[in-house]
Amino acid sequence: MANQTEIDILAKILWDYGLMHHQLEKADTIIVFGSYNPIVANRATEIFKEGWAPIIVFSGNRSDSTLTWDKTEAQTMADVAVSLGVPKDKILIESEAKNSGENVRFSKALLAKHDIHPKKIIAIQKPYAERRAYVTVKAQWPEVNVVVTSPQLSYEEYMQMSPKDKNGSISTIVGDLQRIKEYATKGFQIPQEIPDDVWSAYEQLVKLGFDKSLV
């Protein structure tokens, strides 16, 4: 059995692969993917207040991780943003999406309903899920330009504040890597090259029992 240091080294390989390292650019709207970790709303608030985009869409129903929440993920994150000073009239709430593809499609439809047709968006996810957000947008909304960002946290910082315990968080990162490979074959996302060291780290973590979020 690997020790915690060895497990962290493997998990950080997947974490680093998930990051896109995009530079922020002015955009027409911010779209926040549903999440069990409301900290993504903090990042959306930062970007909004800095003037990178004039409106925020929070998207997400409930998932297995948030079934016990009183409100949907979208409404919960919107409440965080309002508490941090984002005006309610600068927020749109999409509370039906149950996966990343629906986050994109339903947000696009909601914006169109409000006669908003963005040419560029900023998508926000958890750090390790930046790449998944990017490839999903590129597949589901190919005509829009997208910049992806996330809470500016290191692996170690994120693990200390994640609502899930460390094993659960690592399992989620493992599951995201699997989806980057599997969902491309279904057309849900555009394909991505997965380096050998990343896939090897994934396989080792699965063998070590971090398989709770696999499809």
Automatic annotation (TrEMBL):
Superkingdom of source: Bacteria
UniProt xrefs under PANTHER family: DUF218 DOMAIN-CONTAINING PROTEIN, INNER MEMBRANE PROTEIN, PROBABLE PERMEASE
Chain ranges of the DUF218 domain: 28-167
GO cellular component: plasma membrane
Listed Gene3D superfamilies: HUPs (3.40.50.620)
InterPro entries found in the cross-reference section: Cell_Envelope_Assoc, DUF218, Rossmann-like_a/b/a_fold
Organism the protein comes from: Berkelbacteria bacterium GW2011_GWA2_46_7
Membrane-spanning intervals of the chain: none
Name listed for the protein in its UniProt record: DUF218 domain-containing protein
